[in-house]
User: Fold this.
Amino acid sequence: MVLACWQTPAAIRHAGVDRITALLRRGHVKNAIQVAEAMAAAARQQTVTLPGQRAASTANINPARPRHPEQTRGS
Assistant:
C-alpha cells in the first residue's frame, strides 16, 4: 500500500509520518502510527541509492490500475 505511493526511501522520508499514517488509516491498518514511524525511521537509515532507482520508481507497478488517469492500456 505505501510502496504503491512512495517507492524509494527518499520519497518515504519526504512523505513523512503524518501522510503515511493517513494512508495506512484509510487502509484500516492496525497500529498505523507505529508502522508509519517504523517506516520513516527505516527510510532515514537508508543511505544507498541504486542505479536506475529513480527511473524504476516512476514505472507503473500495476498495469491493471494506472497511477494517473491519462495512463491507460493501449495508449
User: Anything to note?
Assistant: The chain has one domain: 2-57.
